[in-house]
Automatic annotation (TrEMBL), chains A, B, C, D:
Entry keyword Cell membrane: no
Name this polypeptide is given: aspartate-semialdehyde dehydrogenase
NCBIfam families: asd_EA (TIGR00978), PRK08664.1 (NF006416)
Organism from which the protein derives: Herpetosiphon geysericola
Keywords: Amino-acid biosynthesis, Methionine biosynthesis, NADP, Oxidoreductase, Threonine biosynthesis
Gene Ontology terms describing biological process: lysine biosynthetic process via diaminopimelate; methionine biosynthetic process; threonine biosynthetic process
Family of this protein: Belongs to the aspartate-semialdehyde dehydrogenase family.
Active site: C148 (acyl-thioester intermediate), H241 (proton acceptor)
Pathway the protein takes part in: Amino-acid biosynthesis; L-methionine biosynthesis via de novo pathway; L-homoserine from L-aspartate: step 2/3; Amino-acid biosynthesis; L-threonine biosynthesis; L-threonine from L-aspartate: step 2/5
GO molecular function per UniProt: aspartate-semialdehyde dehydrogenase activity; NAD binding; NADP binding; protein dimerization activity
């Protein structure tokens, strides 16, 4: 198969570099364009900043020249790791010019015509692109993946909603510092400390799952009627968000075993289509009494799975559990990449 | 005033040393006995282990000889920092022999005849001692303070229960490593990690506030009818437990301001009696959007206050907030010491 | 005694706030001016940034209005916590206008007419101010304290140089993140990591002790002939620099005991003059086999002492040891304050 | 090629599990025996303890039954990850019974008849086994790899000794917590802290390179005449030891470039023989001004290389540099495995 040339917008940041690392020897895609802000434009990627992922920057990227991101390039598919404020107008410019933009930014998630997509959760929402193109008159388009905290929560939420009818979710997160990018969180704020606020995060987590679990009709997406209450904290962890959930259901499972079975048996299109980045098991359930833990479980299924543990009764809602996922892999670049793979596998993108 | 001679049981551990440090130049008490397990007995305190609090061990303690804790000593008041398994029979032996035991251990908290005491919350529960003595025939007695996580939660719970009638509390904690003592949590378990389980902790947090907020009648304590759901996590923080709470009320406050006012205005007997270790304000409310934080707020009011922040609506229960307190000061040794000060100030203990 | 009004330049930063906290209820000084960059000027201190030291900003400072630092204020003594680039011209402007500037910045340390002062080490160097005023025609003047890493090394160096004639020092530091200010070191750079470079630091550490231990003559300071080799690292510690030293002497001590005695017996003018911020023992020697340690020893003598441990033979030079000191107290604001106290006590500054 | 059955002694510990993980699908070896202390014997590996490396224990090991380590098993080659005290007699028992023991323990390193081996450094020392067998009358034998800190230092020391004649090395280490095993370092000792002592470590580091760089003659090994001074510290890093070295030479290189060239060009038998675990480049030299760093460079060459950076003049000795290596891979299990691969490739072990 001839590879599809792709670009990475915001290629010098933390998530941009994650996109690059995931695109090394990718079976569908080949990076031909790297773009970033004016500050980096004209430099090589190696000159523009260190390889945050560890070790030396892979040689195939080190010598690529960074293009200015506001100058639309000659490539039909781009991954966007832009900061949200820059992402708004820039992604539209690329979409207008014919590119399909797979965005990790928050700028367009609330647009009712932009799919907020997790392939295991709402693969049919890609069809919203039709409405988007009609309405905006773009030859390209924009697809987003949700916030990292939402992404890992919505996988088990999908499985449990299907099985038992989810009605309420109370979620408290303990989020990794990599979620704030680089330089991001000052060390004086987080060593021997917890920061019980991540600006704008709770609003995203309380709303995004409603769109993700919503129903696509002729008029667009009808939100799922699930009430979510979120409290988001930053902790001294490099990668991996831990989330404590209490859940209420329309038809609660009879016991923990029934709930766990619904999680373990959950499979979806990415697994059926055997997408290159898809985890074999999108939801893992750990047997360990004190699991999951970020350092020990974040790399499960190459960082593309959500690991669940500590399923037990909740005295207030129905059940409690803990979940854990890699925030810059499945929670960011990996999630966006999986979205693009889904569209290729469905024949919606061609080389 | 002539000082009351006191002993510290478990004087070589983390909490034992906190007792010692708080008893330096104490206006009511003077340490005359230090006791610990067989392993340390006969050594001086300096030989028995390093001063965990920092710097050199204060000279007045360094040369004291450790007595075996299972051999009842000649002192009428002891503070117990024993591990729970040792605390059970040992504290009873001291109580039988006439000592008033102020225990930080969990062993007797569930005994319906043992007061579980926080002076701002249920000072009248000291009267349970009468029933205890009658029933067990002890000339001394046992009083306990709650688990560190409960202690800091129950202060605002008291204020809010009085004002609005508390019905439900969903609590997620991020607890400091000092809560597990020394050596305690292995560094390989907690650096770049979160451990989403603290054995036995959730059971304590879900039950202790019911006893603390209960009513003492002729038959003993009638538990408060509050439903609590807890999820307890360990994080890489030295001192200071952070707790995210969602709360439901019988008569919810009209807005955040009303809830905050109830917290700010809360005062109780320790403040009226001007107890030496009492905080001027047992509950502080921070104005900072990203507060409270353990490293920045744990030492407020010499570690004896609970700091509350981020009061806001909860889409599922009524309100959400974050609270923070020092787990080895107010949450352990300081809490127990305040209990003893309360009894002295009330004339129930004499020099 | 009537208090001397003082200003703090760079009052909104980490070191500036340390100056403020040390000046609360100071017996000699009273803060009447707080100045900072344009960005903060006109705001109150509380508006200009959070109180990094912990808890709430003391009320006496919270409402003070920040003055622009480049506009010379009406005060005869200022402490400067400015960043080095801004410090250069700004401190000169204040000195010209008649203020005595006690600077923690690096800008003027290399000026042969500016004293680099540690009161226990070279108190006579204050006399260099005469030459400085003559030469530059300033009515005020500039005095600096050394870099934090130098400060803690030079205290034992002075004691050992006096006793045994120091010739070589090989020094490897493990420095706290607070040394880089706020926001300073990104958490992604330091959690689960070591950064083996602190820009410009090694040059300072290899040179400053030569000036500090030098001899003031009619022509200025003649540097001490000591060869220093430094390697400076950043580690995940909040406060407290740890330094491993190997030392060579003209007349090596016969054994460890002789070296330790020279450290323990060291006293100097700040102790004789009983300066308010002076430690009783400027050099402490710990008995603990695994000491000193930053979290456990940094607060010794209110952060104003250097703690030494692990004195032993070096197979290459003569002896090895470890030392530890608080980098933002004695190593920065506290050191500068002690310099000012020295001049007051010597009658060189009057109210 | 038929695989050689091997055993792992101390299979339940940190280093034991690293051996197991490196032996998954190994081209030469197949694990048929796992042994540990009485406490674990009879259990399955999964029952005996959690998989410290992360995620779930590989299924091929989970169900293996742990044998008691003091009962010699039916296998001709074992890797020993035993604690040093247990390793002494136990490894001798296995050697007597005919097994070739590749030991990571310190017990026999000082035995003049036991090779202390790093394949790039002293591959000819395997021949010492002949003398060992003759003298002790064992049908098997014992080979050791050095301490983790020595291992990473001795690779560049070999290259530089060959090129310039090394005479003195002053080494200060900042070592990872995984080096102390599990539970190992208490978190209260290392978060926001440095511990400037690792018991016994400095003695090892000052002596082992002399044996490693020594010459094997008819009478055994003549130590290299290099004087080493070590200071070893523990820091809050999970994996990866950082070491600051100052070096003196008989024939110092003319400049940094000449020294770097000697490191870059260094190759040895493992590379020539293309051993399965051998790094392509045993010594990497980073271009980054602030490298190497443990979290960013420890995994270079699958954790089997030493990365060097910051090469510069030393004012006291000749040159300074920083080096970094993975302490539980090349520094422990990986180093021992490479020793065994060397002997297979040389035809000294047969299936």
């Amino acid at each position: 198969m001839k590879k599809i040339p792709v670009g990475v917008l915001g290629a010098t940041g933390m998530v941009g570099q994650r996109f690059l690392s995931l695109l090394i020897d990718h079976p569908y895609f080949e990076v031909t364009v790297v773009a970033a802000s004016e500050r980096s434009a004209g430099k090589t990627l190696a000159e523009a900043g260190r390889w945050m992922i560890g070790g030396e920057m892979p040689s195939q990227f080190a010598k690529m020249t960074v293009q200015p991101v506001d100058q639309v390039g000659d490539v039909g598919l781009v991954f966007s790791a832009l900061p949200s404020d820059a992402a708004g107008p820039t992604e539209i410019a690329w979409a207008k010019a014919g590119a399909l933009v797979f965005s990790n930014a928050g700028a367009h998630r609330r647009d009712p015509l932009v799919p907020l997509l997790v392939p295991e959760v709402n693969p049919d929402h890609v069809n919203l692109l039709e409405l988007q193109r009609q309405h905006y008159g773009w030859s390209g388009g924009i697809l987003t993946n949700p916030n990292c905290t939402t992404t890992h929560a919505v996988l088990p939420m999908r499985a449990l909603h299907d099985a038992f009818g989810l009605t309420k979710v109370l979620l408290v997160s303990m989020q990794a510092i990599s979620g704030a990018g680089y330089p991001g969180v000052p060390s004086l704020d987080i060593i021997d400390n917890v920061v019980p606020l991540i600006k704008g995060e709770e609003e995203k987590v309380e709303w995004e799952p409603r769109k993700l679990l919503g129903t696509l009709g002729a008029q667009g997406i009808e939100e799922a009627q699930i009430t979510i209450s979120a409290h988001c904290n930053r902790v001294a962890v490099i990668d991996g968000h831990t989330e404590c959930l209490s859940l209420a259901f329309e038809r609660p499972p009879a016991d923990e075993a029934e709930l766990i079975a619904a999680l373990r048996e959950f499979k979806a299109e990415p697994q059926t289509l055997n997408l290159p980045s898809a985890p074999t098991h999108p939801i893992l359930v750990t047997e360990l009494a004190d699991g999951p833990q970020p350092r020990r479980d974040r790399d499960a299924e190459r960082g593309m799975a959500t690991t669940v543990g500590r399923v037990r009764r909740c005295p207030i809602l129905d059940y409690k559990l803990v979940l854990l996922g890699h925030n810059t892999l499945r929670g960011a670049a990996g999630g966006s990449l999986l979205n693009a793979e889904l569209m290729v596998a469905k024949g919606l993108i061609k080389a």
